[in-house]
Write a structure and sequence with these properties.
This protein has 5 helices and 2 strands; from the N terminus they run H-H-H-E-E-H-H. The chain is mostly helical and 126 residues long.
């Protein structure tokens, strides 16, 4: 029995939802933590990959380990390509943090000027 095209597409679509969540989860991990998680994930996938493709009691665990393994590999230089999708991430430790400025006073004034019909238009013009 082989995996059918629809099951591969379902796996791909499911990973498109799950991998970004795992990427966020592991963003503060060290290289060693990601490597260990990827290695452990590889063992689970090797043992229960058939459940992932064809259904079985270990399907959910194998799927989550696959998504976690892809997320960990996404932090490697060049990322990872799987089922036609390319995943690449940058560690927060390595990225430049750009402060986000937000003018809370202007927002507060705009909310309290709700009775004034032109408040929104004036805000947009700023």
């Amino acid at each position: 029995m082989t995996a059918t095209e629809p099951s591969q597409e379902l796996l791909r679509t499911s990973l498109q939802a799950a991998v970004p969540l795992h990427i966020i989860d592991v963003r503060d991990w060290t290289f060693e933590q990601r490597r260990a998680a990827a290695e452990e994930s590889a063992y689970v996938i090797a043992e229960h990959g058939d459940d992932l493709l064809y259904g079985g009691k270990h399907c959910a665990d194998a799927f989550n380990r696959l998504a976690l393994g892809i997320a960990c590999a996404a932090y490697q230089p060049g990322g990872i390509r799987f089922l036609g999708d390319h995943w690449e991430a940058t560690s927060l430790r390595e990225s430049t943090k750009v402060p986000i400025e937000h003018d809370y006073e202007r927002e507060f004034e705009m909310l309290h000027d709700a009775d004034d019909d032109d408040a929104y238009e004036r805000e947009v013009e700023r």
